[in-house]
Amino acid sequence: MKFLIIAQDLRHTGTSEGIVSRSFIANLRDIYPQAIIDVFYIKSHDSHDCNELLGADSIVEYTIPRKIPLVTKWLNKVYWRLFNESLRERYIQNLYKKKIATIDYKAYNHVFIRSSGLEYETLLACNNLPILKQAIINFHDPYPNFWDTGSNIKLSNLELFRLKRIKAVVEQAKVCISPSTYLSRDLTVLYGSNKVFKTLPHQFNKTAFNFEQVKHVREKQKPCCIMYHGTLQLGRDMDTVLDAYVDCINKDFNIKNNSEFVLRLKSNQYSRLKAKYEAVSNIIILEANDFSSSYIEQSQHSNILIILENNSGYSNILPGKIPVAAATGCQILNICPKESETRHITINETCIATSTNKSEIATQLEALIKLQLDHAPAILAYGDYFSVDQFKSSIQDILN
């Protein structure tokens, strides 16, 4: 069996798509050890990504320049207003299209095309290319971005034109997949597709990453260490979570003496939060770490990991950090909307709280901290949802 993977982001530095795309390839190798797996890596960044760790038979790399010609920029100022199409986007997509068009896709039994970022260049570039009819295309998030539940983008004619373009891609593709059952359902409806989107959850495979050169790892200072690593974009409200934790330590002297809440943030809210909670010695706010160091810090020096989603009433995405957190073996507390993919896959109510409900977050935090202080084993939030066996089952369903 021969697989071709077209990927746009295989960075090992901790980008969400880099983590899950690398893990996808590594897991595919695990379940098909005798298969030929070739990777066509078409990226827009210069980086060395340790791709020798992926287990692929071959990896061909191309870097697409992001610089837009001046004449295209000037024409686009008028063009998008008249025709509801961005010449800038089309220019970049055409660069991708020229590279993808050179692939001998007929040499493969299965072709996967993975999306990345906000502009979905790899998928949109395949519009009207014959490879698309043989391709299994992956949507990591809703596209266009207006339909992302955490987005504040307004509906415009540009967004509607993007919707029309991606709908054409969906109609030509062999199979469409997403990492979330909620997202698969929503995209099937959004694109008016007669293809039911299938679901392949995000993965995390440690063998696809190099953990030998970790640095700046903070060891925990108290018996129970709660951690959050990540960004605070797309409606994530960390204030409510931290205020709930403050309620816990003010209520229980034992929790105050024996717990700490450590945040590593890559966010423009870093300085504001650090100033707001400066007087609370149990809350430690640090700058973000590199991915390898972050994973070691979370897996070896924390007891409870926080998964934080937006504070709207609905979320159809599966955060890429969830399989990473699950792999640490730590206790997990999901803080998410009442209706969400995260809640859907969480099998124990102790591991979940509603993102807008401070008292509920405080109650769940208090219960989990006490369990950790009593040396109770971690409650598995997701069961075997991210196991290799489940991945194999999902892949077989998609291929058949």
Textual characterization of the structure:
This protein is of the alpha/beta class. It folds into two domains: 2-209, Glycogen Phosphorylase B (Rossmann fold, 3-Layer(aba) Sandwich); 224-373, Glycogen Phosphorylase B (Rossmann fold). The protein has 14 helices and 15 strands. It has helices at 16-31, 70-83, 87-100, 121-124, 157-172, 181-190, 238-251, 253-258, 270-276, 291-301, 321-328, 341-345, 358-373, 388-399, and strands at residues 2-7, 36-43, 58-63, 110-114, 135-138, 175-178, 198-199, 224-230, 259-265, 283-287, 304-308, 314-315, 331-336, 339-340, 352-354. A seven-stranded parallel beta sheet has the order 3-2-1-4-5-6-7, with helices on both faces. α5 links the parallel β5 and β6. The two termini are 14 Å apart.
Summarize the structure.
It comes from Olleya sediminilitoris. By secondary structure, the chain is of the alpha/beta class.
What's the alpha carbon Rg, rounded to whole Å?
Answer: 22 Å
Q: How would the global form be characterised?
A: globular
Q: Which sequence of SSEs, written as H and E, runs from N to C?
A: EHEEHHEHEHEHEEHHEHEHEEHEEHEHH
Biggest sheet details: 7 strands, parallel
CATH superfamily of the largest domain: Glycogen Phosphorylase B
CATH class of the largest domain: Alpha Beta
Secondary structure: number of strands: 15
Percent range for helical residues? 25-40%
What's the number of helices?
14
